[in-house]
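User: Hi! I'm working on a homework problem where we have to compare a predicted structure to a textbook description. Could you give me the structure for the chain below?
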Amino acid sequence: MQKNIKKIGRSKGTLAFLNEKKYHLKTIIKFGDILHKKREVDQTSHKIIF
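Assistant: Happy to help. Predicted structure tokens:
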């Protein structure tokens, strides 16, 4: 499972783990920004797992 998952760092330590087969890089960046703005990121781990 970990082989297909790409780790992308965003501002303030926000990380988005997305499967490269399902998401494009542009979508990942936009999604990361949206989630960061809405503060839907887990406050303890600062991660979102799709």
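For your comparison, note the following. The chain has one domain: 2-49. The helical segments are 25-38. Good luck with the assignment!
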